[in-house]
């Protein structure tokens, strides 16, 4: 049928149409008889973007909702308020710094008086003489650290705190050293207070009654201050106010006191320390305990406590110098008195 259409007669007076010009060959041209995919062109040109306003225009942003505009406005307002507040604080701080710098040396705040409540061992005269407030010092520029260091020249002063009473009063509060022990010297008439920081505080004279020994008088004084008594120290112990106690015998006592349990330490009334190998103690019950050198301390405590628990108040002396062979002495009456040595007939090992 295709051949019949080609053989149709040409109308008279018209020239036959020229044959269609062949298309240029192209490597991307689809084979004859196949349809080109929709949208494909020989020269892929970007199509103009069609927006709401017509071809070639950029799409318009969606309009903001009233709620979004309100939130954005509130955030902007909060940021402005924060910036103003920060600026005001910085300006105020600068004003305060300038004011303090101008007032710290002002004569109106010059220190004219020092107030102090006397303590047991520190008097108002001590503070007045040791405080050494520089001339011209004011409540705003005074160096309280330097004043505290000067006050600590008194060995009883552990620390000092300060408060200001404007316009010109400096108030001083002293915290005293707490004595941990009273050490009776070999002379028997002078004792020294030893602080919790293991420093010598000051000496005190021991006055005993006619029917009282120096040790008993010193023990009464130690109990008055709530501290431990250490007696029979050698003459090599040479205290100096404010200095550290580095003597070996005192260190041996400290090792025993810290090595014992809190309950047992509370039972000790006093220590005797003529040497590091010959330390002994007397308990509040009157029982004498020969401890020896500061070794095997927990074991020695265990043995002593065992004797005390089993003796029903009859033990007067316990020897644990050698824990492996302990010994004790007891009496047969309710009146417990310190014994003399260890009675071999009553020795018992655990």
UniProtKB/TrEMBL annotation:
<feature type="region of interest" description="Disordered">
    <location>
        <begin position="1"/>
        <end position="73"/>
    </location>
</feature>
<protein>
    <submittedName>
        <fullName>FtsQ-type POTRA domain-containing protein</fullName>
    </submittedName>
</protein>
<dbReference type="InterPro" id="IPR026579">
    <property type="entry name" value="FtsQ"/>
</dbReference>
<feature type="domain" description="POTRA">
    <location>
        <begin position="109"/>
        <end position="177"/>
    </location>
</feature>
<keyword id="KW-1003">Cell membrane</keyword>
<dbReference type="InterPro" id="IPR013685">
    <property type="entry name" value="POTRA_FtsQ_type"/>
</dbReference>
<dbReference type="Pfam" id="PF08478">
    <property type="entry name" value="POTRA_1"/>
</dbReference>
<keyword id="KW-1133">Transmembrane helix</keyword>
<feature type="transmembrane region" description="Helical">
    <location>
        <begin position="77"/>
        <end position="103"/>
    </location>
</feature>
<keyword id="KW-0131">Cell cycle</keyword>
<keyword id="KW-0132">Cell division</keyword>
<dbReference type="GO" id="GO:0090529">
    <property type="term" value="P:cell septum assembly"/>
</dbReference>
<feature type="region of interest" description="Disordered">
    <location>
        <begin position="327"/>
        <end position="350"/>
    </location>
</feature>
<keyword id="KW-0812">Transmembrane</keyword>
<dbReference type="GO" id="GO:0016020">
    <property type="term" value="C:membrane"/>
</dbReference>
<keyword id="KW-0472">Membrane</keyword>
<feature type="compositionally biased region" description="Low complexity">
    <location>
        <begin position="16"/>
        <end position="49"/>
    </location>
</feature>
<dbReference type="InterPro" id="IPR034746">
    <property type="entry name" value="POTRA"/>
</dbReference>
């Amino acid at each position: 049928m295709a051949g019949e259409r080609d053989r149709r007669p040409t109308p008279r007076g018209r020239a036959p149409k020229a044959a269609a010009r062949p298309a240029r060959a192209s490597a991307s041209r689809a084979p004859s008889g196949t349809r080109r995919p929709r949208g494909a062109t020989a020269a892929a040109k970007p199509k103009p973007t069609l927006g709401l306003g017509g071809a070639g225009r950029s799409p318009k942003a969606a309009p903001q909702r009233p709620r979004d505009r309100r939130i954005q406005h509130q955030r902007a307002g909060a940021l402005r308020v924060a910036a103003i507040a920060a600026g005001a604080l910085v300006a105020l701080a600068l004003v305060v710094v300038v004011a303090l710098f101008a007032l710290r040396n002002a004569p109106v705040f010059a220190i004219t008086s020092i107030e102090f409540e006397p303590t047991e061992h520190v008097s108002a005269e001590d503070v007045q003489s040791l405080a050494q407030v520089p001339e011209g010092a004011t409540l705003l520029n005074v160096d309280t650290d330097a004043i505290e260091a000067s006050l600590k020249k008194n060995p009883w002063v552990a620390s000092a705190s300060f408060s200001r009473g404007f316009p010109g009063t400096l108030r001083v509060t002293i915290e005293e050293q707490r004595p941990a022990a009273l050490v009776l010297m070999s002379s028997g008439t002078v004792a020294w207070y030893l602080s919790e920081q293991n420093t010598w505080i000051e000496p005190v004279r021991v006055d005993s009654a006619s029917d009282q020994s120096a040790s008993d008088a010193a023990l009464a004084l130690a109990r008055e201050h709530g501290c431990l008594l250490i007696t029979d120290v050698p003459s090599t112990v040479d205290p100096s106010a404010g200095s550290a106690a580095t003597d070996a015998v005192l260190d041996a006592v400290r090792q025993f006191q810290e090595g014992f349990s809190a309950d047992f330490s509370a039972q000790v009334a006093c220590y005797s320390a003529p040497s590091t190998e010959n330390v002994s103690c007397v308990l509040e019950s009157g029982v004498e305990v020969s401890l020896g050198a500061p070794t095997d301390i927990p074991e020695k405590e265990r043995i002593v406590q065992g004797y005390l628990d089993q003796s029903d108040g009859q033990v007067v002396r316990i020897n644990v110098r050698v824990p492996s062979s302990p010994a004790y002495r007891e009496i047969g009456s309710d009146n417990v008195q310190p014994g003399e040595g260890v009675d071999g007939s009553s020795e018992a090992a655990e």
